Every structure is written in C-alpha cells, then in structure tokens.
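Can you please make up a whole protein chain along with its backbone structure tokens because I've never seen that pairing?
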Amino acid sequence: MKKLFWALGCIALLAGLASCGGEEPQGADVYQIYTVNNSETKVEVHSHRMLSAGGDAMLNELVECLSTSPDKLEYKAPLAMGFQILSMDVSDGKLSMDVDSSYLKLPATTEVLVRAAIVRTLTQLPDVRYVGITVEGQQLFDNAGDVVGLMSADLFIDNDGNEINTYELARVRLYFANAEGDKLIGGYREKYYSTNIPKERFVVEELIAGPSGKVEGLYPSINPEVKIVSVTTQDGVCYVNLDSSFLTVVNNVSTELSIYSIVNSLVELSNVNRVQILVNGEVPASFGSSVFERNLDYIVTLEQ
C-alpha cells in the first residue's frame, strides 16, 4: 500500500470529530478510541462511529480521532501530546508509523500508555494486525533499553473493558542458570509491566522469557515452551501452576534447579515467603516437597 503522509487538517472529517467523544454509539461500524487520562496513569476507551470506507480513509479517520483533544479536556489525545507523525505505511498487515524526535521527550510511563492507545486503536482495522513505531527512521527503545518491535493488541492487557491500568516500573531480581546448568546466578531486570497482572506472574513470565542478553554468563533456567496456567499468592505462599512442559529439561538444567530459579526469584518479593509449584494443578511426586523456601546453596556469582 502506498505511503501515507499525515498532517492535521489534510482530511475532511469535521463532521465526524464530534463522535470521537460524547455519547457512546453502538454497532458493527463502531470502533474503540483509546486515550490517555489526564493524570497519565491509564488508558481510557471511547466509542466512535466510523464514517469512512476503505483502508486509507479509515486509518486516517482513526488517526484524526487519536489526534483530537476533547473540548472539555476530559482526557488527552495520544497523538496530540507534543510530537508529530512524519509518515505511515501499511503493508502485509503491518502499520509502520514514523514520528519526530519530540516523541522521545515523553515521560517513560506516558510513552507506554501512548503506545498502548495507538496500538489498541489502530489494530482494529481489518488491514492492520501489528504496529511498529520508529523515531525519524530510527528504532524505538523502551526504558529498559530493549528494541520496541512490532506490537499487537494483546501486548497491552485490558482491565474491565473500560481502561488499561497503570504501567509500573518493576525492578526484580531474577535467577538464571550458569553455563554448566548446575547453579543459579541472580541479576536485576527493570521493565514496565501492566498492573492488571500480579507482580508474581510478571516474575515467572520473565524467567520463562530467559536472560535479556545484557549480562553475559546467564542462561535460561526454564523451558521457554512452558505455559503459565495461573499464579496466585495467599498468606505469603505463592502458588505457581504451570503446564507439563515445565518437566522437560533444557540446557542440562535439572527440574530441581528450575524450581529454585522460580522460588528464589519469587521470594525476593516482599509478599512472598514460600512457593508451591504445580504442574497442571497437581504437585508431581518427583518434586519431593509441596512447598519450597529460598535455597541459597544453588546461588553463585559470576566471579565464582
């Protein structure tokens, strides 16, 4: 699809701007417009009846809504927060959006919310499954220094259908395997996560994702194919329910070491004292224990 160059006022949607806010319309032609609340702590949702037909026109209409602040200033339009769109291009289900360098001046939490609002809004279009954002042609990096690649709607979790909760910066200590796969090495990770999920689940998700590669000498401690069934905490005990992939050893890391990778990481949180790990809702007989406590015997430093 040809490249679309955006400039406010280039399309005639004045009749439709009122529907970007105000009364909530319903119907198959109604799209959800995600905006940032005034305190810049969450994303809110407003309904908009689409007036255009055709891919380019519909995209431009949604971008116009994302750029239009309400008269009563009940919320902030994500594309009216001090930066400009330089170009857009849609190809093979991917929308590439290039913005100017003013985008980098957004506070870290606000920037995540702006991304969430843009992605959740524009991926409703039939031709858009992913959104990628660049800054004057250069890759965008998040607060942790990782490249922000293509983003889908499910990257940002809804709360109750009306808002996406605050994104908080978490600094957690995670324990990964050493090169031999017989010891654990701790390292800190800073990353924004949605408060829609418990921090305990965030820790387990990051362990499954593996080391970031920023620190040499850290290796995956858990099979990356593991799926989380549930993570809950009650009375200081964190209950981690995983699928059967957890029992499949990777990188010569024993199941016992994988267990203590999770346990030692979770007990770093102030509200967790012990951990129970289940596989498909049951404690495997091979575990030898139903509840685990911190085990320092497995922990070494990179110098050892």
About this structure: The helical segments are 55-67, 108-122, 199-209, 255-266. Residues 26 and 291 are 50 Å apart (CA to CA). The longest strand covers residues 167-177. Residues 168-300 form one domain.
